[in-house]
Amino acid sequence: MKPISVSIYQPDYEAFKEAAKEQGRPVAHLIREAMALYRAERLDQKEPLKELPVLPGHRAVGPLPSRADVWDELLEGDDS
After folding, report:
1. Shortest CA distance to 20 belongs to which of 2, 4, 32, 38?
2. In 3D, which of 51, 1, 45, 53 has the Cα closest to residue 26?
3. What is the DSSP letter of 57?
4. What are the pLDDT digits (tens) for 1-15?
5. Helix (H) or strand (E) holding 54
6. Domain boundaries, the chain
7. CB of 31 within 8 A of CB of 16?
8. In the chain, which stretches have pLDDT less than 50?
9. Between the CA of residue 26 and those of 2, 12, 18, 21, what are the distances in Å?
10. Hey, which residues does 60 pair with through a beta bridge?
11. Distance (Å, rounded) from C-alpha 61 to C-alpha 59?
12. How many CB atoms neighbour CB 13 within 10 A?
């Protein structure tokens, strides 16, 4: 692990502190988890849905995207 120092807004810190207390976990664990989730949802490259591997009969031959990924791609470029 890489130790870092960040400045965060007080309301965000208070929310994480309260959640950590309720879960009996350190705030640092929740922040690491939040960063990993952000990376997975926003930074990691994802295959476009149009390129999903399928066989005749519409059976997937690879991992399917999450519901959030589907909506993100559907709404991509939507200006409404």
Report:
1. 32
2. 1
3. T
4. 899 999 999 999 999
5. strand 54-55
6. 7-44, 47-80
7. yes
8. none
9. 17, 15, 10, 8
10. 54
11. 6
12. 13
